[in-house]
Amino acid sequence: MNSMLATEQTTSTPAATAEKPVATHPLLETWAKNERMRHIPSIEWITQKVERDVRKAFEHLWSPFTALAADDPRRTTIEEEFRGFCRAVDRLSEIARHSRNGHAPNDLGERIRQAIQHAITNLHSVDPNLFGRRFPFQTLERSKGEQVYGALLVVLQHLERTKTLVRTIDPGLDERLLEGLVVLANPVDARMLKPIA
Fold first, then answer.
1. What 3 state SS string does 102-127 have?
2. Which candidate, 119, 127, 122, places its Cα nearest to that of 143?
3. Chain centre to alpha carbon of residue 194
4. Hey, what's the torsion of the CAs at 136, 141, 147, 149, to 10 degrees?
């Protein structure tokens, strides 16, 4: 019977014990080399959406609200929705933040205007080359692009709710919101307008 103790050394050939070469590069990902996420729009598009569409829509929504009488029962509901919109814009600004904001004014309209301007400033400071790229898997964190885009969607949802409420005050709201969307030009050539002899 041939038995072996656990403490005895085994004899083997050098070829069998030769180790395989180990890769010299690390298997960790880097943020700058990761691909862009297709479900996240570019930071330029998000900034443009806030700068043009959200700001313009807010101004059109705010003017009928300020004209509303103080004792109107609809005023409280609309004001609460404007406050929710302001919190959503502040959240968007906080996620994209690279700077601190000063003290906000007490007036709700001015506070929302300042929040929109601060969000635009913070969105302009985001690096467009890194925005929208997936974080390396070893960080176990979500990408900043997903958070910013999610916050923008919340802002747009609050804006839609506010539009629904303000339409009850001002039936011509949609006409002003869509103003400039379609530019009518004379489709008929000037030569065609001459009478045919």
1. CCCCCCHHHHHHHHHHHHHHHHHCCC
2. 127
3. 53
4. 30
DSSP category for residue 152: H
User: pLDDT (tens digit, 0 to 9) for every residue of the chain, 197 residues total?
Assistant: 566 655 666 665 555 555 666 555 555 666 566 677 778 888 899 999 999 999 999 999 999 999 989 899 999 999 999 999 999 999 999 988 765 556 666 788 899 999 999 999 988 888 877 777 776 666 656 677 888 999 999 999 999 999 999 999 999 998 888 887 777 666 666 666 666 65
Using CA of residue 52, residue 115, residue 129, residue 157, what is the dihedral sign? negative
Side chain identity, residue 71 = D
pTM of the model: 0.71
Q: 């002899």: which residue's tokens? A: 197
Q: Which string of b and e fits 151-170 if b means at least 16 CB within 10 Å?
A: bbebbbebbeebbebbeebb
Residue in the structure block whose two tokens are 């019977």: 1
